[in-house]
């Protein structure tokens, strides 16, 4: 029995030595130290031994079990260490490799033009006002001197949600709402940038959704010369210090008198070229003195207060500035179009 135990120990230690992974090692553990293993079997057979032999064999059996147990533990620690090292080697990161370049984005050309115009007017003391895109018929039309059935409503056909609620066709309702909030007390000096909607068929120069920036100044003694000086300053900051502007008579229901505003061509300086179609002038804005009806409807005394208003389309300004030939480019999100405005 003594020899059998010594032989088992030698066999087990050899197998432990040969085990190349944790699974194989566990198989050795089960085979030698398990309930059905040979050592347990030896211990079970101890009943047949003489009382003198029993403690000797018992002690030897425990020694063998202990030796196998220690060898298993040592080998397990070794295999686990090897596994960690293997994993670390496989997952090693070469920190000296060059990094992947980050692709930088840029602002949309429209956003850029809108922000440029905003900054320019903020510099002249204006504040920015915003309002809802889903608007009441009252603020979009009625408060702007466009009562139901007015023929000028046809030029701004909208998307109606209900009879009384629609997608705003211009940013003018924001001015009407802001004036109302002032409760008849000036001054009001705001610009209103934002998205507007019209029921229109899209083509190179029309879009059912576009942006506007409109401005409004209401105070005592505001005159048309104030409007002209303001817009001349704007034209020079936007298109170059030598620009001139001219007013041509026009009609808007919310202003009286109303004008179309041209700026001298920034491309040829006014001599005539393809950009200004040979005229030397480019139309950039509509404007006028706020109609007394509009002032009164918003709660201002039109005998005490006067005001001017103007409106422009940032798409048109961006198209002129960057030579863009189709308004649809702004909304198609073609990355090849957008990437051309990197750091212009
Ligand atoms: C109030 C009073 C007056 C806003 C104005 C224009 C002239 C104008 C268009 C130009 C091209 C917009 O982008 S566009 O389609 N705008 O010509 N807008 S005066 O007048 C107002 C607005 C609100 C309370």
From TrEMBL:
Protein name per its UniProtKB record: Phenylalanine--tRNA ligase alpha subunit
Stretches assigned to coiled coil: 65-94
**Main localization of the protein?**
cytoplasm
SUPFAM superfamilies linked to this entry: Class II aaRS and biotin synthetases (SSF55681), tRNA-binding arm (SSF46589)
Q: What is the lineage of its organism?
A: Bacteria, Bacillati, Bacillota, Bacilli, Bacillales
**Species per Swiss-Prot/TrEMBL record:** Parageobacillus galactosidasius
Record-listed Mg(2+) binding positions: 256
Q: Where is the signal peptide?
A: none
Q: Which UniProt keywords apply?
A: Aminoacyl-tRNA synthetase, ATP-binding, Coiled coil, Cytoplasm, Ligase, Magnesium, Metal-binding, Nucleotide-binding, Protein biosynthesis
The cross-references to Gene3D superfamilies, in alphabetical order and at most eight, read:
Bira Bifunctional Protein, Domain 2
Keyword Lipid metabolism applies: no
- GO biological process terms on file: phenylalanyl-tRNA aminoacylation
Task: Please provide, alphabetically and separated by semicolons, the GO molecular function terms listed in this UniProt record.
Answer: ATP binding; catalytic activity, acting on a protein; magnesium ion binding; phenylalanine-tRNA ligase activity; transferase activity; tRNA binding
Gene name of the record: pheS
According to the record, cofactor stoichiometry and binding are noted as: Binds 2 magnesium ions per tetramer.
